[in-house]
Amino acid sequence: MEYLTLIISCILVNNILLAKFLGNCPFLGTSKKMETAVGMGMAVIFVMVVAGAITWLIWHKVLVPLDLGYLRTIAFILIIASLVQFVEMFLKKSIPTLYAGLGIFLPLITTNCAVLGATVFNVDDNLSFLMATVASFAYAVGFGLALVLFAGLRERIMLARVPKPLQDTSIGLITAGVMALAFAGFSGMV
Amino acid sequence: MAKTITQEFTKGLWKEIPPFRLVLGLCPVLGVTTTMENGFGMGLATTFVLVCSNVLVSMLRNIIPSKVRIACFIVVIATFVCLVELLMQAYAYQLFITLGVFIPLIVVNCIVLGRAEAFASKNKVIPSFADGLGIGIGFTLSLAALGAVREILGTGHVSIPFGPLVTLLDTSWYPAFGFMVKAPGAFIGLGLMLCLMNLVPQK
């Protein structure tokens, strides 16, 4: 039950894109086509779960016992950057089909603030190891969900006649605002 | 090097003003601009990191091997972000609490990394300093402007940075647009401001 609440809260109520405002650059950058949106969503789910687990271990087993809490930002971003690099090499060698599918999205994740943000939230909320991993997964699913929904909307908007000054990013942001309004409806659930 | 130092500085204020002309670093723009004061504080913190990292990256540009440059830039930026984090905890604790997770997230702000990669790694120290300062001030102004718009529409008053709370709209006879200071207002406000910027003809 506890886990169910956590999952619902991380996917819908505290959606990392629309309620916490993290990872907006890839949100606007990769949402013009459904294909790229799905690719980015998958890549984020993969990296975020692994990053959530590893940063939890580093924080609770290394940084806290050694009283090095102030190094958190540096340590976490280095972990994420090297993790992305490692995952990229590993996939290229052993699962080439998945690597080809994720393609250019993997390296982009290093600067996706949703990943760093989720790990920081996990530490701030003082979750247990399992809870932190589940929460990372749920945040990533929320990211993927919002991204895919938004890509669907944007593909339709491409066909519509939008006034010139509103075109592209501008109308995209307003659409995202309306989506955020819809997601705000979940706020009383948990 | 046809451009002068002044040009490097002023391009950040209008021609390449982030986040409107360069659509980068949107997360803090959307996340912290609930009030003008928060936007301004976040802008200052980012400007500090931007200027310092630009100068250091520019100094080290001949030493850093190009294959691992991104990792090196991130370490440089992360160091300054840690500094800002500690400084704010010491001298601006209230702001530190309000901005929360967005302070560590300056590390992954695309503007900072983008300027290090696109400008500082190719130019001398002084132009890099001017570039960082210009872009930083432009970013601060945009954040403060968006913060002010959202605050005025959402609550009817505006908090001048380091100043008093000024009431501009009388909200007693109509309900304030509460959603403007919540998540959806950020997207819609930024989208409309972007539209206004597009209306101004480009030179």
Describe this structure in words.
Chain A is mostly helical and 190 residues long. Chain A has helices at residues 2-13, 24-29, 34-63, 72-94, 96-102, 105-108, 113-124, 129-159, 169-184. Chain A is globular. The relative contact order of chain B is 0.19. Chain B has a two-stranded antiparallel sheet. Chain B has one domain. Chain B has helices at residues 5-11, 26-32, 36-59, 69-91, 93-99, 110-120, 125-155, 183-199, and strands at 157-159, 165-167. Chain B is globular and about 65 Å long. In chain B, helix 1 (5-11) runs parallel beside helix 7. The longest helix of chain B has 31 residues, at 125-155. Chain B is mainly α. At the A-B interface, helix 2, helix 4, helix 7 and helix 9 of A face helix 2, helix 4 and helix 8 of B.
With strands numbered from the N-terminus, the spatial order across the biggest sheet of chain B is 1-2
SSE class of chain A = mainly alpha
Structural class determined from secondary elements of chain B:
mainly alpha
The H-and-E topology of chain B, N to C, reads as HHHHHHHEEH
Beta-strand content estimate of chain A? under 5%
Which sequence of SSEs, written as H and E, runs from N to C of chain A? Answer: HHHHHHHHH
Counting DSSP E segments of at least 2 residues, the number of strands of chain B comes to: 2
- Relative helix content of chain B: 55-70%
How many H/I helical runs of chain B? Answer: 8
**Separation of termini of chain A?**
12 Å
Instruction: Give the N-to-C terminal Cα separation of chain B.
Output: 22 Å
Shape of chain A: globular
Q: Give the overall shape of chain B, derived from the CA principal axes.
A: globular
Q: What is the average of the pLDDT values of chain B? A: 82
Share of residues in helices of chain A? over 70%
Regions with little confidence, pLDDT below 50 for 5+ residues of chain B: none
| Sheet of most strands of chain A | none
Uncertain ranges of chain A: none
